[in-house]
Amino acid sequence: MVSAVLSHRPALLFVHDQLGPSTAMYPVRDLTMRNPSLAVLVVTTASNADTYNAALDAGARGVLTYPFSVEDVNQRVATALDWSQRIRSAISDNPEAAAARATSGARIIAVAGAKGGVGATIIASHLAWDTATAQPNMRVCLVDLDVENGDVPSYLDVSHRVSLADLSKISEDLTARSVADTVVVHSSGLHLLLAPTEIRDTEFITPEAVRRILAQLRTLYHLVIVDVGSAITTTQAAAVESADVTLQIVTADVPALRAARRQVVAWESLGVAGADSVRVVVNRFVRQSEIQQDTIDMLTLGDRSEVLIPDLGRALERAGNSRTPAEARNGSWWKSLRAIGQELDSGRTYREAVAAAARQSLNGKDHAEQESRANGHSSAAVPGHAGSAGTQVRSCWRTSRWCRSRWW
What is the mean pLDDT of residues 76-94? Predict the structure, then answer.
């Protein structure tokens, strides 16, 4: 649902409160935050205060209680559409407000492996590390959501005591402080939200908690990269639904390509993502392989990236053993990752934030100059102003003793 709404960008959306196995208020909150002019009407059969409060807290514009009359529907629709039109007009008439809204949320990229062992974790880890290293002022967070098999610390030399499970326990009362206390800061400046080390802690990481956490991270960072693993679970589906784009990693072999197809079909059946929001990246590609690009396009459902990461053999072995991405000295590897980042426009939010800050600074300087000029004119026009009095004092002091004695 989220991907379809973001793709078509309607003015009005009807959502039933029992749309899926979990509450529909989390997708509503996510959609209204990412599209401020979207008017959402929640359809429900429960006419109680809790339902109304939950809908309004999620950002809905109203609640339709079933059974409802045609007059009630017409009134609610007319009011919601009028509000949506006013908001859109206000945003289009105020470019600065639109820019501020555009920069208020991070770009979230989910990285999924078609099956285990295709290299999704190392691609996610090195892509996040390279972005944070290249742009020190850019706030980047890497989330290890492969909760059962997460292995980000194997590629980034960090140790941790707190994890995603600890944040999930308090997901209903998330704050920027609680996130700061949970993330691990890598030496590169990259922030890490890691999977729990104890398998029993994974039960706290629910789809609802994942949606809340990613929504909070969207407000704190410029870029959030989520390693969602390869297993199709409810938590993975929640992350894919919350992401702006999903990077699906495959290799040029039939088992991986068939698994990639099944994965996208599962996401579509769950209503969390469509093929148009999935970007397929081929890892360990060999030009002499039996399976070439046309076969890959035929077997996969997402849009294939123009970037083909070549088979580097043991070129990444030293970086993996030392858990230091800087030890990967192969230029083709970093060139491929940076090209993928450009395709995904991973730095868009950061660029927009920098541009908005520059415009705000320029406007502030212009305003200060106007005030300075206005104050200068008023000082010259007002008789007995402190500036002119000071000039008179200095002039009298220099010209005559009589003036000094009379002044004092």
Answer: 78
DSSP, collapsed to helix, strand or coil, labels residue 103 as coil
The rounded percent of the chain whose pLDDT value lies above 70 is 85
Non-local CB neighbours of 155 within 8 Å, separated by 6+ positions: 121, 122, 125, 126, 319, 320, 323, 325
CA 90 to chain centre: 24
CATH number of 103-351: 3.40.50.300
pLDDT digits (tens, 9 = 90+) for 157-216: 998 999 999 999 999 888 899 999 999 999 999 999 999 999 999 999 999 999 999 999
pLDDT at 401 over 60: no
User: How is residue 143 written in tokens?
Assistant: 């989330």
User: How far apart, in whole angstroms, are the C-alpha atoms of residue 135 and residue 109?
Assistant: 17
Task: Look up residue 58 and give its amino acid.
Answer: A
Helical spans, DSSP H, in 113-253: 120-134, 164-169, 176-182, 207-220, 234-242
Cross-strand bridge partners of residue 63: 42
- Determine how many CB atoms are found less than 10 A away from the CB of residue 371: 10
pLDDT per position as a tens digit, 289-320? 999 999 999 999 999 999 999 999 999 999 99
- In the predicted model, what is the mean pLDDT of residues 5-34? 80
- For the chain, what are the domain ranges? 2-95, 103-351, 359-395
CATH level 2 (architecture), domain 2-95? 3-Layer(aba) Sandwich (3.40)
List the alpha helices (DSSP H) in 243-347: 254-270, 293-299, 317-322, 331-344
DSSP letter for 23, please. -
pTM of the model: 0.72
Q: 144, 163 in Cβ contact below 8 A?
A: no
Cα–Cα–Cα angle for 151, 119, 239, rounded to 5 degrees: 65
